[in-house]
Amino acid sequence: MLEKGWRFVDSNEKLPGDNVTPDPFHKGFTHLRDIYFKVSPDYAGRFTVPTLYDTKQGKIVSNESSEIIRMFYTEFDDLLPAKFKDVDLFPQNLQKEIESTNEWTYHDINNGVYKAGFAQAQDAYEKAVSTLFASLDRAEAHLAQQATPYYFGKNITEADVRLYTTIVRFDPVYVQHFKCNIRDIRSGYPALHKWLRQLYWDVPAFKDTTQFEHIKKHYTKSHKQINPASITPVGPVPNILPKDEEVRAVTTALA
């Protein structure tokens, strides 16, 4: 992603991951912006992802992730097998808690890494990174009190999904690229680290939709103002630890 924004893979490129293809509906479209301009030739906004596009009507339904995730809960149920149709990520009895958690998770963690990473002044960076780590501490304390594997009990909810997207990227990208380096997840947040690995290794939907090469190269090769030479760090190795392995510092501390 450079000056033209999000791009589709070229047919000659061989990149890892499923569904890494050219635009299957618009021959010759090279970037997501092409779809935005097809829908609205005078479009003057940002070309953001995710983008939910209606292929039949040729319209962009939404590009707001918090709206799209809620649409997916019910709008396509008639296309799904029962085991997926019956998944409820926003159960009635937890809706208030999930909404409350979403509020500070989004502003302080999901968006907090960007506030720190794109800060243009030292004081703005320090304010953002302090808020970020205070909220990571808050999530850590909550998970440390849980006797169950997920954020709100024995079942995965929207709170897990929305927090996961930032935490799985934290050590591979945000620690170095966005200077979010007060602590990393694997050595500084044992409850978050356990929760993260349970989702990644035990729930295929998380592991199968996480592609670390895409994650690391997107950030390090897109943000020229942060990384002018577009060098992608090798570490951390591995990108995510197995469930039964800890970093050396943690192993020593627990001995």
Describe what you observe in this structure.
With 255 residues, the protein is mostly helical. Helices cover 49% and strands 3% of the residues. It contains twelve helices and two strands; from the N terminus they run αββααααααααααα. It has helices spanning 32-39, 65-74, 82-85, 95-110, 112-117, 122-144, 158-177, 185-188, 190-202, 204-207, 212-222, 248-254, and strands at residues 52-54, 59-62. A two-stranded antiparallel sheet has the order 1-2. A hairpin with a 4-residue loop joins strand 1 and strand 2 (59-62).
Task: Compute the CA-based radius of gyration.
Answer: 19 Å
The low-pLDDT segments are: none
SSE pattern, N- to C-terminal: HEEHHHHHHHHHHH
| Mean model confidence by pLDDT | 94
- The total strand number stands at 2
Helix content, binned percent: 40-55%
In what order do the strands lie side by side in the largest sheet?
1-2
What is the SS-derived class? mainly alpha
Largest beta-sheet characterization: 2 strands, antiparallel
